């Protein structure tokens, strides 16, 4: 019996060099924007918005009929859909007769074929373009033009196309692409719900051997085969749908479903491959069709993690057999203890940063070094736990480690990319890698470690992970923040005991792109489900979901605030600015910045100006570079893209950095010849190729008053109009003003004219290029400290044809520049003191001296009288001042001394209650204690800072220190105990508070804590504080007052009321720093005697 053919042709676009850009700035092709939420369901059904470019194609013969579903399609921009020609052509053209088409209706964003929800966009088709050489099974491609453009949303996003038509088709072999559709199931009926599957691409020879009769006459360079041959394949009804491949940070369309073989049941034969068409040959024709009705296009700004991923990708290389050099997952690193033993895993995400779990870092045998294959051990410089992680929790279990020295990257050591809620693909093959000891038995001890990997991981129901559903009074857990993963690699889990222990925490779960050679981390392992019965089929694991916490990760890695204020870029303050020693040509002028502007019509960025880096996030340039020359208004911040360390346009390097702009500042005087400053959205990392220059303070007579040589850099846009491919530099001479006047140049007071000492040199400058000079003293000292003295404004021709470069003197703008760099605001006395205390802090391997042990915080003090035991706790906020509760100092056992650390107790000189304290309601229950002598501060004993309305964040986890009594002891001995936990929200506190207290407690000045180990009789004076592990800084948020339990609830909660320090800060400052306020008052009186004030 002759085989019948089922038509469904695949259109392949192998293209990465130039993506299709979009007209709505919040969306970008190939990047899904479905919301992050718990994954529900199982199998291969698709969650809403997962393939937002898939289109349902409906057709009918005429208006008297109803539209019926026939095929799939793929959205490629806001007006065009690609599909197979046989889906829409009723009769193809022949014998000079035009083709006849069905009437077409498109549904975009649909998931259930029988339900049209509010998310579904319906469009009719104004024109069908079938390929001019289309005939059955040949050139089976059509472009559908919608009458009205679609508006992008989380369920309607186009996929990327690539314009590269010269790519070798063989690079697809072995890669897996994804297809989706409502095609017929094994029962011969259309699927109601959108389903998806992945198919590997196979070699032509394998396809031919699979069915010579079916494929023999159509196999050529325009087609390829794919399939599992296991029952998972496109079925009738999937025709015209796309085949998608992940390229690391986005999805691209590689094909459109073509044809396969029909079996006796009228469904696709699962033992036969599916045919796909390589459409690289058709790209010129497709672009011609697009050009007829191409919509205006735009481009969203990428996340900093995406920009960095692109930078790392420049390091990738492939061997001749197509394998990636970095296929050994060296970005999966080990965290080891002092003995060098494995403690847990982590993943390298940047040269100096590793992501791991907070529970590992806070463990008793905490790691002290990161071990990276071929790079040895690296000590920690800083440790940063997620601010919402609390003890014994599976939620928010993430930590960032900053290494004490950057790792040297190479072709086989490349940081991993980070998934976001657009690039995350949980339906792809998920690979878990983990370092384990080689011991196959827990009783065997071996020093050797190995990296194991498994791709038998599937996302499962959130409810399966029982550990994520623990009872708690705080509703801070977000079920979208974790992934529940089922692993069926039973042999591996039986072989390596570490995979079932805490040592595998921090192990990454990732997708891997063979084409881009990049891994994208979607989760970090935090927990193995424990069961009394050994699982026979699988292990269930909990992963922290990277996309859920990406905002925090990006801020911690790429925008971390320094411990202290950055020095101003003057050589007498900043020893790092302007230093440059030329070794290689590409290291030249590391402070030069390429400023690109986005074309609003095409979305493409084009170099238009230059700038100069003057700090980690400030670039100075000319005002004309940031203003609309027609309207005179400042351009929107999304207009700009800044390139640092780039010396060749169009050729990215691993040392290049790209940043977007968050603020634009133009000098008050409205003139295009004034200066402007761009503030980057994320900090610029200082490297050998990227550094900031010094500013020259004051008038530099040796430069402006003499013909002193200086240098300018640029891409030659002022002279050529279009940028040169390489960054150029040239020596230049500042001429005397008389020479400028003789050339008929009209200059303002801040402008100078410059010429070139060598006439054959043309201007290399751009608008905004910096003018740099090396002071004479720098040359004598044999090290180069360069200073920025001017900015190139324009290029002028003198009356005799001479060429002059006009520069603006930077010196008059220094006060304005300093004001923007410092962003100074009036500081409270408590903030100034906090900075003073912060200068004492030290850390070793990221462990702060003042946080060696959580239950032994030296700044948390105990108050005593001459009797035994502790009366209550307090907190040191100044060398001789302590904060506590008013109840504490009015205790029948009134405290007379304070015990601070292991030192001798210090006598109390004075105790002051808040003047509005009410002993009945416990309102305003806060007090200050003055000691008889100041204590000696050190890196181990540092007073706590005080929270204010800007620094108080009650959403984060806090260290809560309470007095705990050992009830099993006869002497009623008590001690301090600390734990991380949340401060209750208004709703949470109201829920647990006994009804009889609600009227009198929980005022705006108060908050509550719900503490299982809280002793209601010992709560007053308890300390609630946040901890910044980077700065080694404690900040007091609240002082404990009164506590109660609520027997009406089960289990019975214990509720403590704390008074918020920020609410009482005015009074606290006046009591703690009374001498400062007294001196301020005296200064005011003194000033008033002279009739003026200096404040």
From TrEMBL:
Domain Peptidase S1 stretches: 39-291, 319-558, 575-822, 861-1073
Which keywords annotate this record?
Disulfide bond, Glycoprotein
In the UniProt record, does the keyword Iron occur? no
Listed under GO biological process in this entry are: proteolysis
**SMART domains reported for this sequence:** Tryp_SPc
Which terms does the record give in the GO molecular function aspect?
A: serine-type endopeptidase activity
SUPFAM superfamilies membership: Trypsin-like serine proteases (SSF50494)
Q: Which family does it belong to?
A: Belongs to the peptidase S1 family. CLIP subfamily.
The record's PANTHER family line, in alphabetical order, gives: TRYPTASE-RELATED
Query: What protein name does the entry list?
Result: Peptidase S1 domain-containing protein
Tell me which species this is from. Answer: Aedes aegypti
């Amino acid at each position: 019996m002759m085989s019948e053919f089922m038509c469904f042709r695949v259109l392949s676009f192998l293209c990465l060099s130039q993506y299709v850009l979009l007209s709505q700035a919040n969306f970008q092709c190939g990047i899904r924007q479905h919301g992050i939420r718990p994954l529900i369901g199982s199998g291969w059904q698709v969650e809403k918005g997962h393939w937002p470019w898939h289109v349902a194609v409906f057709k009918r013969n005429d208006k008297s009929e109803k539209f019926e579903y026939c095929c799939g399609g793929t959205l490629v921009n806001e007006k065009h859909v690609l599909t197979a020609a046989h889906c829409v052509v009723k009769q193809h053209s022949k014998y000079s007769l035009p083709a006849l088409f069905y009437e077409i209706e498109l549904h975009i964003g649909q998931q259930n074929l029988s339900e049209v929800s509010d998310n579904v966009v319906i469009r009719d088709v104004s024109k069908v373009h079938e390929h001019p050489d289309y005939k059955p099974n040949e050139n089976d491609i059509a472009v559908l033009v919608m009458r009205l453009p679609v508006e992008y949303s989380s369920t309607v996003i186009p996929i990327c196309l690539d314009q590269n038509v010269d790519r070798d088709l063989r690079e697809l072999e072995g890669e897996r692409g994804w297809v989706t559709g409502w095609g017929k199931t094994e029962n011969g009926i259309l699927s109601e719900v959108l389903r998806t599957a992945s198919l590997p691409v196979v070699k032509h020879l394998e396809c031919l051997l699979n069915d010579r009769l079916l494929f023999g006459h159509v196999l050529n360079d325009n087609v390829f085969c794919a399939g599992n041959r296991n029952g998972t394949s496109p079925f009738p009804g999937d025709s015209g749908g796309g085949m998608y491949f992940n390229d690391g940070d986005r999805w691209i369309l590689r094909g459109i479903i073509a044809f396969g073989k029909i079996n006796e049941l009228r469904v696709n034969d699962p033992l036969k491959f599916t045919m796909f068409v390589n459409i690289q040959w058709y790209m010129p024709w497709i672009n011609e069709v697009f050009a007829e009705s191409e919509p205006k296009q735009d481009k969203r700004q990428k996340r900093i993690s995406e920009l960095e991923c692109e930078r790392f990708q420049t390091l990738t290389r492939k061997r001749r057999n197509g394998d990636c050099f970095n296929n050994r997952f060296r970005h999966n690193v080990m965290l080891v203890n002092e003995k060098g033993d494995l403690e847990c895993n982590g993943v390298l995400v940047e040269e100096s940063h590793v992501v791991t779990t907070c529970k590992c870092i806070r463990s008793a045998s905490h790691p002290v070094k990161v071990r990276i294959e071929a790079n040895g051990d690296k000590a920690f410089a800083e440790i940063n736990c997620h601010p919402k992680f609390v003890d014994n929790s599976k939620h928010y279990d993430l930590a960032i480690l900053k290494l004490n020295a950057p790792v040297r990257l190479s072709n086989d050591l490349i940081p991993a990319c980070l998934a976001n809620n657009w690039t995350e693909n949980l339906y792809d093959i998920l690979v878990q890698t983990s370092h384990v000891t080689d011991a196959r038995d827990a009783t065997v001890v071996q020093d050797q470690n190995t990296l194991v990997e498994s791709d038998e991981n599937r996302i499962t129901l959130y409810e399966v992970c029982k550990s994520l559903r623990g009872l708690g009074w705080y509703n801070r857990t977000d079920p979208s923040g974790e992934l529940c993963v089922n692993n069926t690699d039973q042999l591996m889990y039986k072989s390596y005991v570490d995979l079932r222990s805490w040592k595998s925490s921090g192990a990454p779960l990732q997708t891997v792109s063979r084409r881009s050679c990049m891994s994208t981390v979607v989760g970090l392992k935090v927990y193995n489900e424990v069961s009394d019965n050994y699982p026979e089929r699988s292990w269930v694991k909990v992963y922290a979901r990277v996309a859920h916490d990406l905002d925090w990760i990006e801020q911690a890695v790429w925008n971390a605030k320094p411990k202290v204020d950055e020095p101003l870029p003057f050589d007498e303050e900043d020893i790092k600015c302007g230093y440059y020693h030329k070794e290689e040509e590409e290291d030249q002028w590391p402070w030069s910045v390429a400023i690109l502007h986005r074309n609003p019509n095409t979305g493409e960025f084009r170099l238009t100006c230059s700038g100069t880096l003057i700090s980690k996030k400030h670039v100075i340039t000319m005002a004309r570079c940031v203003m609309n020359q027609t309207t005179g208004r400042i351009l929107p911040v999304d207009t700009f893209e800044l390139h640092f360390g780039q010396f060749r346009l169009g050729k990215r390097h691993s040392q290049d950095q790209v940043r977007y702009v968050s603020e634009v500042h133009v000098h008050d005087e409205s003139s295009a010849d004034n200066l402007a400053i761009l503030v980057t959205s994320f900090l610029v990392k200082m490297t050998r190729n990227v550094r900031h220059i010094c500013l020259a303070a004051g008038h530099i007579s040796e430069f402006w008053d003499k013909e002193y040589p200086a240098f300018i850099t640029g891409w030659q846009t002022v002279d050529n109009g279009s940028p040169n491919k390489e960054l150029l530099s040239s020596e230049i001479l500042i001429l005397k003003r008389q020479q400028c006047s003789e050339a008929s140049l009209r200059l303002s007071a801040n402008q100078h004219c410059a010429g070139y000492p060598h006439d054959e040199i043309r201007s290399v400058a751009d608008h905004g290029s910096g003018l740099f000079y090396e002071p004479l003293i720098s040359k004598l000292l044999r090290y180069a400290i360069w200073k920025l003295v001017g900015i190139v404004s324009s290029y002028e021709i003198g009356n005799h044809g001479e060429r002059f470069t006009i520069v603006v003197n930077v010196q008059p703008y220094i006060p304005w520049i300093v004001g923007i760099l410092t962003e100074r605001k009036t500081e409270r006395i408590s903030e100034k003191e906090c900075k003073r205390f912060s200068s004492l802090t030290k850390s070793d391997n990221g462990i702060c001296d003042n946080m060696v042990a959580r239950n032994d915080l030296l700044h948390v003090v105990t108050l005593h009288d001459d009797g035994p035991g502790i009366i209550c706790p307090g907190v040191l906020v100044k060398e001789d001042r302590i904060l506590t509760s008013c109840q504490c100092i009015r205790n029948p056992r009134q405290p007379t001394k304070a015990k601070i650390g292991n030192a001798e107790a210090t006598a109390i000189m004075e105790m002051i209650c808040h003047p509005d304290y009410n002993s009945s309601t416990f309102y305003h229950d806060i007090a200050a204690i003055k000691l008889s002598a100041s204590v000696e501060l050190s890196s181990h004993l540092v007073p706590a800072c005080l929270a204010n309305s800007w620094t108080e964040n009650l959403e984060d986890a806090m260290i809560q220190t309470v007095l705990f009594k050992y009830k099993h002891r006869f002497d009623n001995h008590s001690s301090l105990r600390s734990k991380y936990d949340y401060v209750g929200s208004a709703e949470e506190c109201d829920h647990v508070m006994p009804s009889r207290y609600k009227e009198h407690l929980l005022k705006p000045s108060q908050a509550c804590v719900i503490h299982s180990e809280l002793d209601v009789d010992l709560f007053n004076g308890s300390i609630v504080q946040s901890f910044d592990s980077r700065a080694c800084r404690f900040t007091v948020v609240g002082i404990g007052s009164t506590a109660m339990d609520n027997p009406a609830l089960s289990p019975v909660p214990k509720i403590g009321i704390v008074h918020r320090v920020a609410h009482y800060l005015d009074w606290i400052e006046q009591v703690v720093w009374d001498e400062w306020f007294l001196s301020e008052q005296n200064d005011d009186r003194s000033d008033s005697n002279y009739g003026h004030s200096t404040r």
